[in-house]
Specification:
This protein is α+β, with helices and mostly antiparallel strands and 182 residues long. It is built from 4 helices and 8 strands, in the order E-E-E-H-H-E-E-E-E-E-H-H. It has helices at 37-61, 74-79, 152-156, 158-181, and strands spanning 10-11, 17-25, 29-32, 82-92, 97-103, 116-122, 132-138, 143-145. Strands 1, 2, 3, 4, 5, 6, 7 and 8 form an 8-stranded mixed sheet that branches.
């Protein structure tokens, strides 16, 4: 039978754990994580309070020269981080071809065609997409592989998140003082 005229049917696995052999690792592509506008606005507002307080304290203590801002723009923060998506096709013991997606980076030599693997998958929000791999156990090499993807918090960065926490603490402290005084 000609595979180009009659391609083999690929199914998305229904079980949470699937065991089989690697049939094909397709080339990866980039997918973007969406950043919610309310979350971003809340973090930026809280960070702005901390930054304004720091600038006020700095201007009172010293009349120094200003430096150029290295903050990222709204458009850059709103875009969200990109992560690698690698489609993986595997054949189970019954000969059925399953397709799953690996989100994040794995070592290049971690999976080879014909490796015997066991994957733990989770359904994605979009039902048309193949399930996402949470964990891969390569039974051929004995490796446990857990792909990691960036999060919204890692995209915003620890400095901005810390500024937002300090801003919330400042606003909370001012609110507590006004309540106790008033």
């Amino acid at each position: 039978m000609d595979r180009e005229l009659f391609p083999e049917r690929v199914v998305h696995p229904r079980a949470r754990i699937v065991t089989g052999r690697v049939s094909r690792l397709n080339p990866g592509y980039a997918r973007e994580i969406k950043v919610g506008q309310p979350v971003l606005m809340a973090v930026l507002a809280a960070a702005g309070v901390a930054q304004m307080t720091a600038l006020l304290v700095k201007s009172v203590l010293q009349a120094g020269t200003g430096r150029a801002s290295t903050r990222r723009r709204w458009k850059q923060l709103r875009k969200g981080p990109e992560f690698l998506v690698t489609p993986l096709r595997m054949r189970d013991g019954d000969g059925v071809l399953h397709e799953v997606e690996i989100h994040g980076h794995l070592p290049q030599s971690a999976l080879e065609p014909a490796d015997h693997i066991q994957v733990t998958v989770r359904r994605q929000k979009d039902g048309d997409l193949p399930p996402r791999v949470e964990r891969i156990v390569n039974l051929t090499t004995g490796q446990l592989l857990t792909p990691r993807i960036p999060t919204v918090w890692s995209h915003l960065g620890p400095a901005l998140v810390l500024q937002a926490i300090l801003g919330l603490l400042l606003v909370g402290g001012v609110a507590a003082c006004t309540i106790t005084i008033g």
